[in-house]
Amino acid sequence: MSTNGVETTYFRRVSRWKLLLIILTVALVLTIIISLNVGFAQIPFSTILQILAKRIPFLGSLVGSSNIPYSAERIILEIRMPRILAGALVGAALSAAGVVYQGIFKNPMADPYVLGVSAGAAVGASLAIVFGIGFTLFGVNTMPILAFAGSLVAVFIVYNISRVGSRVPVTTLLLSGIAVSIFLSAIVAILQVIAGKKLHAVVFWLMGGFSGVEWKDVWAILPLIFIGTVIIYFFARDLNILSLGEETAQNLGVDVEKVKKVLLIFGSLVTAAAVSISGLIGFIGLMIPHITRIMIGPDHRVLLPTSIIVGASFLVICDAVARVIVSPVELPVGVITALSGGPFFIYLLRKKKESYGV
Amino acid sequence: MAVLTVDGIDCYYGSVRVLENVCLSVEERDFVGVLGPNGSGKTTLLRSISRTLKPHRGVIFLNDADIYALKSVEVAKQMAVVPQDNVIAFNFTALDIVLMGRNPHLSRFQMESEKDIAIARKTMELTNTWHLAERPLNELSGGERQRVIIARALAQEPKVLLLDEPTVHLDINNQLEIMDLLKDLCIRRGLIVLAVFHDFNLAARYCDSAILLNDGKIISMGNLNAVLTSENIRKVFQVDAVVKKHPITNSLYIIPISMPKPSLSRKLSVHLICGAGTGTTLMKILAEEGYNVTAGVLNVLDTDYETAQLLKIPVTSEAPFSPITEETYKVNLEMMSKASAVVITAVPFGYANLQNLEAAKEALERGIPTFVIEEVPIEQRDFTKGKAEKHLTELKSKGAIFVKNQNELLSLLDILEDKLNMTKELSSKIPGHFKSETNSCEVDEVDGSKSSNF
Q1: Mutating which of A104, A244, A307, A355 best tests the B interface, going by the most B Cβ atoms within 10 A?
Q2: Which of A22, A147, B34, B81 is most exposed, with the fewest beta carbons within 10 Å of its own?
Q3: What is the value of ipTM here, to two decimals?
């Protein structure tokens, strides 16, 4: 019936979202399994499936494990698996933060690093590398902890600089984010100059990557990123309404200042968590929300989960490419994302009108 | 019972006070216009009522609850706002936007139900936007977008609707459509409408009452007839205006006349022979240009007579619809002979005002330069079987200057003014009767220079 056309389309859209999310999740799992096959050591795909199946309760006992080489099992489970899962988590976190920042700032150029998260993390990590501050504290690598602390301190400073009374105007927030980032970048430059032999390590961290990631790193960031993105998702509809402008959102019953605060805090938290183990990986948080928005529209209730899954898959793929493209040398994954992100950025500038709708 | 009460609020932007001691109360079914010049605090008043700008002093009550003590969700269930600019950051469809109006009624994880869609559809049908439901809002025209935004506000199912210049982007048909809709909601569902208007006539046509703001203070408030007076308009806008009841809509309408321009002052005085509206614009222009204007003979109730009253131009007047009496004729001639020029507009001539031409002839004979504006040929406006035409021909032969339009007249008057100033200087040196003679001599010159035009 034509009179009910619009309503039907509307509800069909909602069920299409659910289907899309299921498909994308399956795609993510497949991407992870396939990328387990990518690496310097040649491990047959059947072996990988056997190794994975063995870990599944009940099913595992049915799989014959006698012919799996010990080394293959170690490489898959102890080296590739944590690294790939870290990649997925970081991709998810950066994409979620990208959605949040673009939503709050109503600005397509906003990315998870706008509030000085990256610069703060860089200072923290550089300090850890250059001065080797208690390189293992209580058996934990301190570099991620310092990177995490550095990014949160930077966000805290930016936030308080831009606060006017109880309000946080978006423009001052962006501007102070840039100012603080520039200042912190200067400190990183100083640290690089005095780094001496450790310069290579600093530069490598700044370029971003997942080599050497272990299970304990994954376990450290998993709860932060999981809780952070879940809380962000609570505010998905508020993000929709914020796109009408802050005053209108207020008039529609959104507690704008509270929502902004919560989203900024948890957006920064998941970014800091991601950055602490991966270093700086650019363009994910900028690109993924845009691509997803073009695919499924601007509704944050579907944009956020979709971006998370797409971002996770994308970073897993990028990392797989980084591992083998100039094998046996491994490229930092940040190089791959930047290489694909640069052209995308130009495309975005040219397409801005259509994709952003302003 | 008052639903909305504003009790003595002061609002500041930084240290600048924008509203001062504003009090008002609005009841169900009220349609209130907020009027005032730019920067008078209209939008600020709306913002503070909509819980966006907390007043420094005073309280705003919505159904006896202080709105700044309520949660914004609670306020949003009862009050909706249609802002002035509606730029939306992402490509949401019109239906998405209208459904956002359901936000205060939905809990955090609730998706919009069929009931919400039905409400959205109803409000979109009311605002005539349902056919646009699936179009991105940013691709719609200004008028369509405004109607979608109003639908969104109505989807909140509010008791109070605040609008900031709701019709500013709209064509006249859309304006009336939206205003009719608001009025209808107001009357039939008891919706309170509080809207800022720039257009006084639109406000006058739909509002029951009005608030006139100036400089952050309420100048006048209450029934429209009491607020929209020409005194109030002059006080607030420094503009003279005519306020009348429109014969068809039976609502007030306001015609702004002019800003008083005290700057220019000229020595030349001009007497107008006009009527039936032919002198209205000329009177206004001449007065603005600083000429001393007189007019006559005009019948009371004639459009030109009313304009003259408004512009405070001295007029020799005759009773309505009456021919000019001998006595009035003399008074008018007296007035005319004090003028330094006489202007005859393209007024239709009948037996009631034919004497004005005779007076002009006499003035011309006394040496007062006379100008005739011939925008409409005399044959088309002579209702005296050729007598008026004969008079005009006679005037021409005696040296009256015929011009095609107002602009030509104004430039000639300019020249005359200059010459007058020069002769004033001269006559201070050369005393006596010379003055009037030089005057007429000049006019001949002017006539000569212009005669090739006709």
Answers
A1: A244
A2: A22
A3: 0.85
* Residue A226 included in any domain: yes
What would the mean pLDDT of B305-325 be, rounded to a whole number? 85
Q: Per-residue pLDDT for A308 more than 90?
A: yes
Q: Which range has the worst mean pLDDT, A169-173, B110-114, B263-267?
A: B263-267
SS3 B209: strand
Please give the Cα distance from A135 to A152 (Å, whole number): 21
CATH at A346: 1.10.3470.10
Residue A108: domain span? 22-355
Closest residue to A357, CB basis, from B81, B114, B138? B138
Tell me, yes or no, whether A5 lies in a domain: no
At B122, the pLDDT band (50, 70, 90 cuts) reads: very high
Asked if the model's pLDDT at residue B436 lies above 70, the reply is: no
CB A273 within 8 A of CB A225: yes
**Chain B residues near residue A234 by CB distance under 8 angstroms:** 108-109
In sequence order, the 6+-apart residues with CB closer than 8 A to the CB of A102 are A108, A110, A111, A289
Total tally of structural domains belonging to chain A: 1
DSSP annotation of B277 reads T
Residues of chain B with C-beta less than 8 angstroms from the C-beta of A301 = 111
The CA R_g of chain B, rounded to the nearest whole Å, is 30
User: Rounded to the nearest 5°, which phi and psi values hold at B160?
Assistant: -125, 135
Residue B303: count other Cβ atoms within 10 Å of its Cβ.
15
Task: List alpha helices for B251-377, DSSP H.
Answer: 280-289, 303-310, 326-337, 355-365
pLDDT value of residue B451: 40
Q: Is A343 within the bounds of a domain?
A: yes
pTM for the whole structure = 0.76
- Terminal-residue alpha carbon distance, chain A: 34
Q: In whole numbers, what is the pLDDT of chain A averaged over residues?
A: 85
Nearest 5°: phi and psi at B341?
-160, 150
Sign, CA dihedral B168-B170-B175-B181, equals: negative
What does the pLDDT look like over B16-46, one tens digit per residue?
A: 889 999 999 998 889 999 999 988 999 999 9
